[in-house]
Amino acid sequence: MTAPATNGAGGEERRELTATVLNIQRMSSEDGPGLRTTVFIKGCSLECTWCHNPEAVCAKPQLVWHAERCIGSAHCVRPCPESAITLRQVAPTSSGAGPCSEVVIDHARCTACGECLLRCPSAALEMLGKDWKPEDLFDEVMKDEEYFAGDGGGVTVSGGEPGLRAPFVDAFLARCRTRGIHTAVDTCGMCSPHALRLIATQADLVLYDLKEIDPAKHRAFTGQSNERILANLEELGRMIRDKQVGCDLWIRTPLIPGATATEENVAAIGDYIARELGDLVERWELCSFNNLAADKYRRLGQEWAYETTALLSDSELRGFEAVARRSGVNPDIVVAGGPVRIDCDDETATVE
Amino acid sequence: MSAQQQHAVCQDLKTPHGLSPRIRRLRDFYFEGLAREWNNEFSCWTTGTPWDVVFDETSYYIVPEVYAFLSTFAASTLQAAQPVELATDFWNWSLPERRAWFIREVMVNYVPKEILPGDLLAGARFNVLASRCWSKNEAAERNRAIDGAGGARAATKRFHDHGYGNAGATPGHLVPGHARALEIGWKGIHEDIESRYQGLCESDKRGSKGAQLRAMLTAATMPAQVAQGYADLCRRLAGDEPDSRRAEELWNMAGNLDRVPWEPARTFEEAVQALWINHMLVMSDENYPGPGVSFGRIDQYLYPYWQRSLADGMDREFGKEILKCLWIHCNTAYDAMIRVGGNQGITSGFGQLITLSGMGADGRDTTNDLSFAILEVIDEMSPILEPKPNVRLHRNSPDQLLDKVIDMIASSQGAPFLLNFDERSMAGLMREARVAGCEDLIHEGNVFEYAPVGCLENTMVGNDRSGTVDNNLNLLKAVELALTGGKDLTPALDPLSGQAAPLSQDGPETGEPARFSCWEEFWQAYLEQTHYIIESCVNLYEKTERLRAEYCPTPYLSCLVKGCADKGLDITQGGAELSFTTINAGTFATTVDSLLAIKYLVYDNNLIDIDGLIDALKANWQGYETLQAWAKFRAPKYGRDDAAADEMAARVMAVWTTDTWKYRTLSTRRRFRPGMLSWNYWVGDGYIMAASADGRPRGKFLSNALCPSSGADIHGPTANANSAGQALGGRATGGNGDWGDYLNALPNGASHTMTFSPSLLRNQEHRRKFKAFLRGYCRNGGTALQVNVLDADMLRDAQEHPEDYRHLLVRVTGYNAYFTSIGRELQDEIIARESHGAGS
């Protein structure tokens, strides 16, 4: 289901170098130092059960319908060449607001041709994913060049998994670096060693996800064992040590209740970092689970096992933070954040 | 700046802290409001003639909310007026001499003098409505010009009721030459005027120049006489004061008042005392409590006195106490109408603006210890409204200043001040110098001395009155007239009677739009109608400008503004060296988006013909919801950093600003210059103006100043800021801008408000990121920024009106989603979080 890792630049160069970009997030404050423009590339090599960006998993563009934007014109139905759009009558809401029918997209039939989008007056239909060429994407992110300089900001390529589009990322980030823009990639590590080398070479900072240390559990949570991920990380460490690449390294660990959020896992990841990477890691971010993705799954016609999962409490998050600090790493690199249960809130969801 | 914005700025301020018992007592005393034994509400003073006028309604023609009360105010204030015994030959004098004498007489001999509890500054009551000192003939002529046929009042009301906007010659809105008055004292000012008077030939002495200078000589003795009254009072109080420390303070104040403001100030205490008396008497002279009577770069011109007093042993905290007393005095301006409304007369409309920091010569930063002391004063006194602070930032602003500013924004849940951006602002003033040919007065070597007045309206200092709020024009009216060939789209309704005005051919006949074969023809019609609305505004302004010049001299203020004594002209007659008046364009984004929508719907995509669109607008979009959705959600919009849309914005900007520069007032030869300030008009006029092609129905707010339309800002703050900067002209390459690389079509500046997530300010790491934004704004953005912080109320509004908040993002590390597209329950949870987290 996920796109195969590339086997080298040769195969890619015959095609035009493009990537399907889910979103270009400007003035991002959460994906590396300073203010950044984060490019989310579609297509991921993992299928994490908790994934909060499910629209980034599939490499292909996907059509979604936003009920709250729909005015019920039904203009989208007839133009669909695949007959993938139908209307379903629903009971009117108590306030009488909103359409009295739902747009149902047959995702199996939809080829993402976009005909329906052109006819939708209220932009209730959205195509997730747009193809970009590196040079155009560069022009786009450069709109915020003046905001990058102030605090070490720049460009982050995230996903999905940027390693799946390594030649594209390489070409895009090379342009950024030539212009003196700080570059970062956010990777889950599940890509070919060659791809990782390619993107790390162009990055001033690699944000590397380490979700679960136990290979079997990792397979259960994400569909893949973590052996490749750990091997890639160790190789990246060697390259940094040998100065083959010049990037800083941050590790990110999502704390998912009932999955990765266990003291054993946090301690073991810490132990691994201390052992394998030592002082190469500048920052280890523990990111608490957030529960806001339910509607995204619904719009994609998918189920989400975590729909009713409670957030961590603040004391749980602080507990994991303490475990991480005691795990053998330099305690100063540990940063814990993200939403926690409201009764003991100290950090809020970010609304912009 | 709108009332709404002000409210948002002020509602969540933290509690005052670090106040000495003296200041706490003064502050508490102030907020007792009507319960105070003392207050500074208007007192009214008359010559005693039956035709006297003490309330000049034209001062309030830019405040449509009061149109319905103008006659009431005029009648009741006259009824309340107390007679002043006139000098025997009073009626033989010229009008400026009468008025100068009358105001001085009232302030020196009639208005009671008191010292507020524990206060370190004298000068308490200053809100007066004093006789205009008109003879019977003068009053008759002036009144005829107000309410006779073709009079100013009806013309003003018509302009407003038909959705054009408003205009009127308005007091305040300048920075008097305070630095000079402190340096040479009124003694020096008086000597200067005296020598000019003596230098006049005999016929000039007998003429209007001589009369004006004699009036100014009278006015120039007022501050010392007022100060002497307070000095005597301080001595009396000191004699009766049982607390020896307080008695010492009062003796000290008396000593200061013996010297200043007549003599040059020597110490910080003297300088602030002199500054306050000089400032408060401007408000007395104009009979106008505060709006836009601005202090300018107070941290620069008070700094030598601050340094000297510190060196002589003044305790820094005592220096701050003196400033805090000044803060309280400024707030008593609101007492003017203390019985009106539910908030002790405290509205958000006043703006005795102070300016802090900013660029100096050679691009150097001018931040000093006094800048920080004043920021501390603001921080410790908050929440308090006056004086309104504006912090000037530029590319070399020090981190220490930005850090302090951002900490204050974070702890106040929004900026307790406005931010002004020097490079873009100075570019606007350099443009003005070039276009208007006043490069001898504004140039590379002095443009950095500029200061904003009121909120953010940029002017030079001590020689400049540029009518910064006097003309407020809705550009959108030109789109409406282009759609109808010069008539109102829907009949204007009288706000009191509800009666519909008959449609008339008001603008030029630009033809039936159905006959336009292409977009360019529509654009031509828009151009012609834009000429028309600007000319209409200019003509309306003339009605009150002429009256003010002829009947409302302000000789005291004229003493403080360079040019008036040179020319022997009152400031109301164009005496200031720099004497412009400003048209502020409102509805900018609504206009640009409407033009973009017409092009998109009718000419580019054939979604409807123009008559169909006009029908939809006449129907206020009722029955045309699908078309409205196309206009609202699919047509391009300004504010997204979209080059094509922003180019339309730049075209609209070029058209109206170029037209504006073409005009001068007839009576006073003041040239018109452009700016963008929407005060609160974008709210109220939204109920007056017909539906617009951008999808807005009548009754929805118009766009505010330079801001994108509500809900149009879909690519976040950096895109919004970039569009704003582009609309002003963007940047040229190779130093070919108006100032450096910077271009700016608006010398008056442009109001720009942005709302940020509190999480962007939640810790030091994120505050550094916000600092990077401000540094980027300095390079790419507009002239001024009001920072608001998103609060729970706004999120609740987003729940109720999701169409206005489509692109509000919820962001958690590595995750983002639209607020409006997550379920109600989770929205509620986020709102609860924001409420919970506020102020932490």
Could you give a quick summary of the protein structure above?
The complex is a heterodimer of chains A (352) and B (840). Chain A has 352 residues and is an alpha/beta fold.
Please describe what this structure looks like.
The complex is a heterodimer of chains A (352) and B (840). Chain A has 352 residues and is α/β, with parallel strands linked by helices. Chain A has two domains: 9-59 and 130-344, Aldolase class I (TIM Barrel, Alpha-Beta Barrel); 64-128, 2-Layer Sandwich (Alpha-Beta Plaits), CATH 3.30.70.20. Chain A is built from eleven helices and 14 strands. Chain A has helices at residues 9-13, 115-119, 134-141, 145-148, 166-178, 193-201, 215-222, 227-241, 263-277, 294-299, 314-325, and strands at residues 19-28, 36-41, 62-65, 85-89, 101-105, 125-128, 130-132, 154-158, 182-187, 205-209, 248-255, 281-288, 334-337, 350-351. In chain A, the strands form three sheets. Chain A has a nine-stranded mixed beta sheet with strand order 7-1-2-8-9-10-11-12-13. Chain A has a two-stranded antiparallel ribbon with strand order 3-6. In chain A, strand 1 (19-28) and strand 2 form a beta hairpin. In chain A, helix 3 (134-141) crosses helix 5, helix 5 (166-178) runs parallel beside helix 6 (193-201) and helix 9 packs parallel to helix 11 (314-325). Mean pLDDT of chain A is 91; it is low at 1-13 and 344-352. Chain B is α/β, with parallel strands linked by helices. Chain B has a domain at 791-840. Helices cover 47% and strands 8% of the residues of chain B. Chain B is built from 31 helices and 17 strands. In chain B, the strands form five sheets. In chain B, strands 4, 10, 11, 12 and 13 form a five-stranded mixed beta sheet that branches. In chain B, helix 2 (21-31) packs parallel to helix 15 (316-331) and helix 23 (588-604) packs across helix 25 (625-634). The longest helix of chain B has 33 residues, at 519-551. The radius of gyration of chain B is 27 Å and the shape is globular. Residues 1-13 of chain B have low confidence and may be disordered. At the A-B interface, strand 1, helix 4, helix 10 and strand 14 of A face helix 25, helix 28, helix 29, strand 16 and strand 17 of B. Strand 14 of chain A pairs antiparallel with strand 16 (809-812) of chain B.
